[in-house]
């Protein structure tokens, strides 16, 4: 049976350090503050907003919410971004995407001050990920994957790691972050030939395919570590990952659950980034 790599223990370790950092900042008169910008009433955005707010308050980070209606004009949103950019008391910004179709995503992303981009959405933040520098912050989800691996003592140096998925949100930045840690990385996607055999030869699999239980036993081998990034809802309304958990648990050495794995850690990473911006101030 696989070891279940739960996010709860990772969150607890991060929380202890964050509380200490926030107390030190407040002693200097600095209150770490996150701006949350949401356009519309998407259920998944609202759920993440609640989780992020709870995580912030749990360590003493303030939250300012900027909520716009679904039909908000692009200029209205840009004015909000400008307000956040110019408010020295706001250290980080979480902008929910995708935005409504009548708003140009690129224009809004580029308007955000990269110094306040704590979720890795600006071009400068992404450039930092790909150059291996400390410019900006990488997206929170792949960072959460790295936090889990580190917490459980899983060294990626010299390991064969397969990343399933090539999105800018998870797959590509995850690959770059793994390479920075000296892993040998293969990125698989919808055009990959014989993906199961590639995955079977991996030491570690990062699954971010975006399809429920697509990684079944044919992709897996004994001794592997599986980090499941997927968040899907099955026909019965249950949350499930990109990996067939029941099958994987019988084969691999360790696997993150869904829910209770990567997603749990992601909000803590977001808060950690806000605190780091405040510390730089």
Question: How are the SSEs placed, and which strands pair?
Answer:
Blueprint: E1 3-4, H1 7-27, E2 33-39, H2 43-59, E3 62-68, H3 74-86, E4 92-95, H4 105-111, H5 123-131, H6 140-151, E5 160-164, H7 171-180, E6 184-188, H8 195-200, E7 204-207, E8 225-228, E9 232-233, E10 239-240, H9 245-249, E11 254-255, H10 262-280
Parallel strand pairs: 1-11, 2-3, 2-4, 5-6, 5-7, 7-8, 8-11
Antiparallel strand pairs: 9-10
Q: Keywords, please?
A:
single chain; 281 residues; alpha/beta; Rossmann fold; 6-stranded parallel sheet; 42% helix
Quick recap of the structure?
This protein is an alpha/beta fold and 281 residues long.
Mean pLDDT across the residues is: 96
Distance between the termini: 47 Å
Secondary-structure content class? alpha/beta
Described by strand count, sense and barrel closure, the largest sheet is: 6 strands, parallel
What this model shows, in words?
It is built from 10 helices and 11 strands. The protein has 281 residues and is an alpha/beta fold. It folds into 2 domains: 29-113, Rossmann fold (3-Layer(aba) Sandwich), CATH 3.40.50; 140-263, Rossmann fold (3-Layer(aba) Sandwich). Strands 1-11-8-7-5-6 form a 6-stranded parallel β-sheet. A 3-stranded parallel β-sheet has the order 3-2-4, sandwiched between helices. The chain has a two-stranded antiparallel ribbon with strand order 9-10. Helix 1 (7-27) packs parallel to helix 10 (262-280), helix 2 (43-59) crosses helix 10 (262-280) and helix 6 packs across helix 10 (262-280). The N and C termini lie far apart (47 Å). The mean pLDDT is 96.
């Amino acid at each position: 049976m696989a070891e279940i790599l739960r996010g709860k223990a990772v969150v607890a370790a991060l929380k202890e350090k964050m509380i200490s950092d926030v107390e030190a900042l407040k002693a200097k008169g600095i209150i770490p503050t996150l701006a949350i910008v949401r356009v519309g009433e998407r259920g998944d955005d609202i759920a993440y907003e609640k989780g992020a707010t709870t995580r912030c308050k749990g360590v003493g980070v303030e939250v300012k919410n900027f909520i716009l209606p679904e039909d908000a004009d692009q200029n209205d949103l840009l004015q909000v971004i400008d307000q956040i950019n110019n408010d020295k008391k706001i250290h980080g910004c979480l902008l929910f995407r995708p935005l409504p179709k009548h708003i140009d995503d690129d224009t809004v992303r580029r308007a955000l001050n990269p110094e306040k981009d704590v979720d890795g959405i600006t071009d400068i933040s992404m450039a930092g990920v790909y150059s291996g520098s400390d410019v900006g912050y990488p997206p929170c989800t792949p960072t959460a994957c790295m936090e889990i691996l580190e917490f459980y003592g899983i060294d990626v140096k010299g390991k064969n790691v397969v990343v399933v998925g090539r999105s800018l949100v998870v797959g590509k930045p995850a690959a770059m972050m793994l390479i920075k840690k000296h892993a040998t990385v293969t990125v698989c996607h919808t055009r990959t030939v014989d993906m199961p055999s590639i995955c079977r030869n991996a030491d570690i699999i990062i699954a971010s395919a975006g399809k429920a239980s697509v990684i079944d036993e044919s992709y897996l081998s004994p001794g592997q570590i599986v980090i499941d990034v997927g968040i899907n809802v099955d026909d019965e309304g249950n949350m499930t990952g990109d990996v067939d958990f029941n099958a994987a648990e019988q084969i691999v050495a360790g696997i993150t659950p869904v829910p209770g794995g990567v997603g749990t850690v992601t909000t803590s990473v977001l808060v950690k980034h806000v605190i780091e911006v405040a510390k730089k101030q």
